[in-house]
Amino acid sequence: MLQVCLNGARSRAECPHLPVTPDELAAAARDAVAAGAEDVHLHPKDHDGQDTLETTAVAAAVSAVRAAVPGIPVGVTTGAWATADPHARAAQVRAWTVLPDHASVNWHEDGATEVAAALLDRGIGIEAGIYSGTPAARRFLSRPGSRRVLRVLAEITEATPQDALHAAAGLLDELEPAAAPILLHGEDATAWPILRLAASRRLHARIGLEDVLHLPDGTPAPDNAALIRAAREIIQHTPPGTP
After folding, report:
1. For the whole model, what pTM was predicted?
2. CB contact set of 16 (below 8 Å; sequence gap of 6+)
3. What is the DSSP string of the chain?
4. Using an 8 Å Cβ cutoff, are 110 and 85 in contact?
5. How many whole angstroms separate alpha carbon 88 and alpha carbon 231?
6. Which candidate, 69, 142, 71, 130, places its Cα nearest to that of 105?
7. Number of Cβ atoms within 10 Å of the Cβ of 142
8. 25 partner at 20 to 30 Å CA-CA among 12, 39, 91, 208?
9. Can you tell me the distance from the alpha carbon of 127 to that of 153, in angstroms, rounded to the nearest whole number?
10. Domain map of the chain by residue range?
11. What angle do CA 181, 57, 96 make, to 5 degrees?
12. 3-class secondary structure for 53-101?
């Protein structure tokens, strides 16, 4: 499965063509799915372009994207940077009026289990975000509810390709007991090397302006669809087991 991550916590200062509004997210999702994306991950934004879990913003973003790409799963973030207090974050999830198909929960953040419980209570699938270089994997695997997730996001945070590939191998070994599909991804300079690793291991992958602003050849990516097309090309031409 190839997921498109449309915008992330980035701002227009980093990427002038970043999709922010519901209409922009819908158009970006439509183009990305036409290019080969099979799942959508997005960050709802407030009027200032900041990530938010507020009910109206989530409903507007999810509704617009779902209408643009019917039948494609749509997910959102529950990152602590959007709402720092974990109790408030869980309360926001419980107040959502339009439910995404799934939401990511970062297991190194305080309140992860409480937010995950709120999602499960609403019938929303969980993407368990496991960051390299944190105790997230150990925390996640020690919880009885770890088997009730849609998938695990193995999120590689190391800054250089060599360090990232080494960290990814270690994290995948650590996550071997997880009884869920794994989506492996990097960011910025490591996004493409890690996507190749995911392709070689036949893992789920993702790409989009949240993760990287450049195509594999280093040129600026004009949009999410161009990133998805490049990722599809890599996946199709990477034999299993390629180092």
Report:
1. 0.94
2. none
3. -EEEE--TT--TTT-TT---SHHHHHHHHHHHHHHT--EEEE--B-TTS-B---HHHHHHHHHHHHHHSTTS-EEEE--TTT---HHHHHHHHHH-SS--SEEEEETTSTTHHHHHHHHHHHT-EEEEEEETTSSHHHHHHTSGGGGG-SEEEEE---SSHHHHHHHHHHHHHHTTT--S-EEEE--GGGHHHHHHHHHHTT-EEEESTTT-SB-TTSPBPSSHHHHHHHHHHHHHT--TT--
4. no
5. 37
6. 130
7. 9
8. 91
9. 6
10. 2-236
11. 65
12. CCHHHHHHHHHHHHHHCCCCCEEEECCCCCCCCHHHHHHHHHHCCCCCC
Cα–Cα distances in angstroms (integers) from residue 129 to residues 35, 65, 185, in the given order? 25, 22, 11
In the block, residue with structure tokens 């507007």: 60
Q: How many residues does the chain have?
A: 243
**In angstroms, how far is CA 104 from the centroid of its own chain?**
7
Fold of the domain spanning 2-236: TIM Barrel (3.20.20)
Q: Across-strand partners of 153?
A: 129, 183
Calpha distance 215→114 (Å, rounded): 37
Q: Token pair of 112, please?
A: 């992860």
**Mean pLDDT, the chain cut into blocks of 10 residues (243 residues total):** 97 95 98 98 96 98 98 97 95 98 95 94 96 93 80 95 95 91 96 96 97 97 98 93 63
Quick one: pLDDT at residue 3? Answer: 98
